[in-house]
Amino acid sequence: MKKLKQIANSINFKIAMIFMLLLLATIEIIGAYFTRQLEQSSIQNFETSIQVPSIISNQIANQLSRANTQSANKQLSKIVTNYNNDAINQMIIVDNKQVIRAVSNVNDQARVGQRDTSNEIKDAITNGKQISQVENENGNNMIQITPLTATNGTNTNVGAIYVRASMQSVFNNIRNVSLTFLTASLVAALLGAIVSLVISRAITRPIEEIRQRAMRIADGDYSGKVKVYANDELGQLAKAFNTLSVRIEKTQEATDSERRRLDSVLSHMTDGVIATDRHGNITIINETALNFLEKPESEVIGKSIIKVLGLKDITMQDLMSNQQELMVTINPNSPDELILHANFSLIKRVTGFVSGMVCVLHDVTEQQKNEREQQQFVSNVSHELRTPLTSLQAYVEALNDGAWKDPKIAPHFLKVIQDETQRMIRMINDLLSLSRMDRGVAKMDLEWVNINDFVSHILNRFDMMIKTDEKNDHHKKYTIKRELNNQDLWVEIDTDKLMQVIDNIMNNAIKYSPDGGVITVRLLKAKDHIILSISDQGLGIPRKALNKIFDRFYRVDKARSRKQGGTGLGLAISKEIVEAHNGRIWADSAEGHGSTFYISLPFESMAEEGDNWDEI
Ligand code: ADP
Q1: 567 CA: nearest ligand 1 atom
Q2: Alpha-carbon distance values, 297 to 157, 306, 342, 434 (Å)
Q3: Measured in angstroms, how far is the CA atom of residue 435 from the centroid of ligand 1?
Q4: Confidence check: pLDDT of 151 > 90
Q5: Which of 614, 615, 604, 613 is nearest to 451 (CA)?
Q6: Helices (H), 105-167
Q7: Substitution site in 571, 576, 578 for ligand 1 pocket (most atoms within 8 Å of beta carbon)
Q8: Ligand 1 midpoint to CA 445 (Å)
Q9: Residue 609: its pLDDT value, please?
Q10: Separation of 601 CA from ligand 1 center, angstroms?
Q11: Residue to substitute in 508, 521, 554 for testing ligand 1 pocket (most ligand atoms within 8 angstroms of CB)
Q12: CATH 1.10.287.130 spans which residues of the chain?
């Protein structure tokens, strides 16, 4: 059915049909005209052929003019019977009183002498004009009534000859001719259809080839050319099509390479790029933008940029008219928080019509975080310095107000002033060394040291301090337990700085263990690093504070730390120093039972090298 419809719609079929219909219409018009002419002339000829010759009609007129009717009728009957015309099947002679005088048919002899009542005969006699007409009843017979005038010159109507002749042969002839004509026209139409099919195929073949080639071009296949059959209009069309296909191929190649270039620029950009249509629905998005949004491409294409970026209280109208720049926060208040600077610009056509928008996303999380940290740091420093300064001011004022005279409180006040001043100096020094490390100007004085000896040396110092402390009445009872490695472990470190780290952790272990206890120092060797751990049995650190203790000025218990002379910068400095050694520092704790601090430093086994040196 579909195939039939396709054929019926083809130009081939249409041309053949038009050709055939035109041919048929022409043949039919000619045929109709021809058969009509044939019919008319055949009837005319037939009319003439059944005309009673004048010699006979004169004889009849003579007989009708005679007085003796009996013998006249006899004569008339003789003339009628003897008259021989194959077409005529009935002949009647009527006189001017419309009385039948003779009949050709034997069976009708009884009518002789009777009056004929038909109007046609009456008309013919009175008007003196011949009537020829095809019989109404079956149309196969012709009736011819010829009026007769007297031969004596008086010109009076004497009667009429009524002739009835069969036209069957005439109609048979016409039918035969028509049939032949019909057959001929059908054959001609068939031949016409075949010829027109051949011609239309010759016309449509190049068109079909161009169509197929166009389909291949649409599928991206530019190979091959349309064959040029002749230099006619179709040939020129084929040539123009071939030129067009070459141009399309070149343009396509240029567009493809342009697109590839754009794709590669977009995908290698560190900034996110989003393009939308004029309704704000996303049409293009690059890899970086997808990573920022943590969404697959399928989830954002076609969606509104406002929804995808999670912009609140902003309409597309705002973005199009005035909103050029915005700050967008992804995953706000979570560890994965991402702060993006979004810059919007409109895509305009030459006419000024806005066809879309481009949004460039720049990751400013680090920058924002740094700014926030810097602000926090300045505020912390101010706060940390204000507290000791306020207390200094209070003590100095009290002394000034006369307390200096009181030998009981003056030394105590002066001791507090001295302690606070020392703490402030320590803090300033700590801040200065942190700042040096931040700026990257803290010089690392690296040397190869056997870490076992190095740690032992520091711990010896602490043992000495404990012994001195024990002489005091209010000393805390704590001991240092060493679980050191007896191997020679050579690591490259800045001894002063790493000593500062270990001192800080050891001092903290003492400071935050109010009831004393055992401080265990362990040294472990792994494949490519050594781990130094210092455990105490002190207050411990709450789990949620474990990550924060390395932040500047963070203290679990601010008052306690301050009372102990702490600055809240010790661990922050330690972290910077360890990381400058490409190491790592972290803490673990069971609150109320103690804490363990770990320092991991990179280590390269130099056993073989060492052996070689020994041999030399
Ligand atoms: P501070 O000068 O306050 O000691 P640090 O940076 O050395 O500053 O330490 C930060 C905070 O970590 C301390 O205030 C304390 O709350 C906690 N902390 C450090 N070491 C220990 C420890 N061994 N036991 C319990 N808490 C500790």
Answers
A1: 2
A2: 115, 16, 19, 44
A3: 20
A4: no
A5: 604
A6: 119-127
A7: 571
A8: 27
A9: 47
A10: 22
A11: 508
A12: 369-437
CA separation for the pair 322, 260 (Å, rounded): 33
Task: Indicate whether 119 pLDDT > 90.
Answer: no
Q: Tell me the pairing of strands 157-166 and 141-149.
A: antiparallel
CATH 3.30.450.20 domain position(s) in the chain: 50-166, 269-363
* Cα separations in angstroms, 379 against 302, 373, 383, 385, 552: 46, 10, 6, 10, 12
CA of 566, closest atom in ligand 1 = 2
Burial of 148 (0-12, 13-18, 19+ CB in 10 A): buried
- C-alpha to C-alpha distance for 524 and 184, rounded to whole angstroms: 117
Q: Please tell me the residue having the least CA distance from ligand 1 atom 2.
A: 566
**Which amino acid would we find at residue 157?**
N
Other CB atoms within 10 A of residue 139 CB: 10
Q: How far is the CA of 542 from the centre of ligand 1 (A)?
A: 11
Q: Could you identify the atom of ligand 1 that is nearest to the CA of residue 555?
A: 14
**Does the pLDDT value for residue 611 go beyond 50?**
no
* Å from CA of 102 to ligand 1 middle: 162
**Cα–Cα dist 494/583, whole Å:** 13
Tell me how far the alpha carbon of residue 50 lies from the centroid of ligand 1, in angstroms.
149
Residues with a CB atom less than 6 Å from ligand 1 = 504, 508-509, 512, 536, 538-541, 549, 555-557, 561, 566-572, 595
* Mean residue pLDDT across the chain: 87
- The position carrying tokens 């931040």 is 438
For the CA of 504, the nearest atom of ligand 1: 7
Atom of ligand 1 nearest to the CA of 571: 6
Rounded Cα distance, 282 and 26, in Å: 65
303-356 residue pLDDT tens:
999 999 988 888 888 888 876 788 999 888 888 889 999 999 998 888 888 889
Which mutation among 427, 428, 549, 598 tests ligand 1's pocket best, with the greatest number of atoms within 8 A of CB? 549
Could you name the CATH architecture of 369-437?
Answer: Orthogonal Bundle (1.10)
User: Tokens representing 261?
Assistant: 């270039």
What span, in angstroms and rounded, lies between the C-alpha atoms of 351 and 345? 17
What CATH number does the domain located at 269-363 have? Answer: 3.30.450.20
Q: Tokens standing for 77?
A: 């009957």
Is 284 strand, coil or helix? Answer: strand
Mean pLDDT (whole number) for 239-249: 89
CATH class of 50-166: alpha beta
Ligand 1 pocket test: pick from 512, 513, 536, 576 the residue with the most ligand atoms within 8 Å of its Cβ. Answer: 512
413 pLDDT exceeds 80? yes
**Is 615's pLDDT higher than 60?**
no
- The whole-number pLDDT of residue 606 equals 63
Burial 122-132 (b: 16+ CB within 10 A, else e): eebbeeeeebb
**Closest C-alpha to 492, from 529, 438, 459, 533:** 529
pLDDT at 71: 86
Helix (H, G, I), strand (E, B) or coil at 176: helix
- Please give the pLDDT value at position 562: 77
**Ligand 1 center–CA 473 separation, angstroms:** 25
Q: Give the separation between CA 199 and CA 487, rounded to whole angstroms.
A: 105
pLDDT at 614: 42
Atom of ligand 1 nearest to the CA of 597: 23
Question: Which CATH number does 445-615 carry?
Answer: 3.30.565.10
What's the pLDDT at 473? 59
